[in-house]
């Protein structure tokens, strides 16, 4: 099979012509493995907290316990901004590799922490490292996927979050039956870091993004990256030159707050903030909330595992809808269902009703995350794509830092206040998503500032 690139065709046209093949599926598997590992790292403190509390004598809802839950998110806040900015300047691949390596290192070290203070510091550093995978992985995926497949592939990548959630819940459950809680948490932290090591080794063979290389003036490097895609996909890239997109002499993050980007950046930041505060406010405390409700630790982990499996239908539906109804409508719809299901959870009076409302909430919020991750990179031009992704995801990290404190209301008898706030956040986020007013389905990625 042979395909060619027309003379003067853009890199987007080249990617579309080379088509979908083994390269893109391999990239999805590689990024997905690390994404699952990141999900484990982000969520595992919630699973490990009962054991950490037993080992260090922490009280339920204490400042130290809340600080542990917030430390990873605080690191991700700084990491998202720093690594996103750096990736637009030195290239996606460098950050693509560095962040995963550091995440594995600090994650493993956390398993040997002698004190709570050291553990908090190492969780912060782990968060700082994995915060970079958020903007970079999605920029890499978006920039290598043909236009017709981009939306669903970005949702597919986000769906690996459910895999990571299932893995960490299953691992926590298995360790809870084999070891006392005061010992099992160390194994949980250490083992959760190992998938990232496998992901790091797999990433060594991934080239830098041709769009990023072109934006930085490396035309030869961009062609080599496209030749790699063509070779793996079993097609041929013609010798026709690639068009280098026009770009201003200097592109700074300030451009995100000027011209046509100002409004979409602000609205996207609001969506990321609202969804993150509600999601982590509920699910970071969920194991402790279920434990406080009288469930045994094994039952807590089994229930959490079932809720993680409920995320899968949400992702699958989002992957279908983003290419049928569009990114904007899909995101708005899932956020609206999330707001409604949070209210239903508030009034659930039986164990079955609680489980079903939480399952719907879990599916709706993860469907919203999938649509948001598909939508966001398509709204920023190539020179600012990872910077923009880093900035708006940093707003999610701000919310994540706040979420343990807000979510603690679930354990202190303020269930109505907490869930009412979360439902309101999802509703406001839905309104902001709709107000963006731009549909990117079927559109090629913007290469330069408008």
TrEMBL record:
InterPro entries associated with the record: MFS_dom, MFS_sugar_transport-like, MFS_trans_sf, Sugar_transporter_CS
Entry membrane topology: Multi-pass membrane protein
Name this polypeptide is given: MFS transporter
Tagged with keyword GTP-binding: no
Record-linked PROSITE patterns: MFS, SUGAR_TRANSPORT_1
Entry keywords, A to Z: Membrane, Transmembrane, Transmembrane helix, Transport
Statement: the UniProt record of this protein carries the keyword Transmembrane helix: yes
Residues spanning the membrane: 27-48, 68-87, 94-114, 120-141, 153-175, 187-206, 266-288, 300-322, 329-348, 354-376, 388-411, 417-436
Major facilitator superfamily (MFS) profile domain span: 27-441
Subcellular location: Membrane
């Amino acid at each position: 099979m042979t395909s060619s690139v027309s003379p003067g065709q853009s890199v987007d046209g080249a990617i579309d012509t080379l088509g979908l093949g083994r390269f893109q599926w391999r990239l999805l598997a590689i990024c997905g493995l690390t994404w699952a590992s990141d999900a484990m790292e982000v969520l595992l403190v919630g699973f490990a907290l009962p054991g950490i509390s037993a080992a260090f004598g922490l009280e339920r809802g204490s400042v130290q316990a809340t600080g542990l839950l917030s430390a990873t998110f605080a690191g991700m806040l700084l990491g998202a901004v720093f690594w996103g900015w750096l990736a637009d300047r030195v290239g996606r691949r460098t950050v693509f590799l560095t962040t995963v390596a550091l995440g594995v290192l600090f994650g493993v070290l956390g398993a040997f922490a002698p004190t709570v203070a050291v553990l908090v510091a190492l969780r912060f550093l782990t968060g700082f490292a994995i915060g970079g995978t958020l903007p970079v992985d999605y920029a890499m995926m978006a920039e290598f996927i043909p236009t017709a497949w981009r939306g669903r592939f970005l949702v597919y990548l986000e769906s690996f979050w459910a895999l990571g959630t299932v893995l960490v819940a299953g691992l926590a459950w298995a360790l809870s039956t084999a070891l006392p809680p005061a010992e099992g948490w160390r194994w949980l932290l250490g083992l959760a870091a190992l998938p990232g090591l496998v992901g790091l080794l797999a990433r060594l063979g991934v080239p830098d993004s041709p769009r990023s290389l072109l934006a930085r003036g490396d035309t030869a490097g961009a062609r080599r990256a496209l030749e790699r895609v063509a070779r793996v996909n079993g097609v041929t890239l013609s010798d026709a030159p690639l068009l280098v997109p026009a770009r201003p002499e200097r592109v700074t993050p300030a451009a995100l707050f000027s011209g046509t980007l100002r409004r979409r950046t602000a609205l996207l930041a609001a969506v990321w903030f609202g969804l993150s505060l509600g999601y982590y406010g509920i699910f970071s405390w969920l194991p402790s909330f279920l434990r406080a409700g009288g469930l045994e630790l094994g039952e807590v982990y089994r229930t959490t595992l079932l809720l993680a499996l409920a995320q899968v239908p949400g992702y699958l539906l989002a992957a279908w809808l983003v290419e049928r109804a569009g990114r904007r409508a899909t995101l708005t719809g899932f956020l609206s269902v999330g707001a409604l299901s949070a209210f239903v959870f508030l009034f659930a009076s039986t164990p079955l009703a609680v489980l079903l409302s939480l399952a719907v909430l879990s599916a709706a919020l993860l469907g919203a995350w999938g649509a948001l991750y598909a939508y966001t990179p398509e709204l920023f031009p190539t020179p600012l794509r990872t910077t923009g992704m880093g900035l708006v995801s940093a707003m999610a990290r701000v919310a994540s830092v706040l979420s343990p404190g807000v979510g603690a209301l679930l354990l202190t008898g303020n269930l109505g206040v907490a869930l009412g706030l979360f439902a309101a956040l999802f509703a406001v986020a839905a309104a902001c998503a709709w107000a963006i007013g731009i549909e990117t389905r079927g559109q090629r990625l913007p290469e330069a500032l408008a």
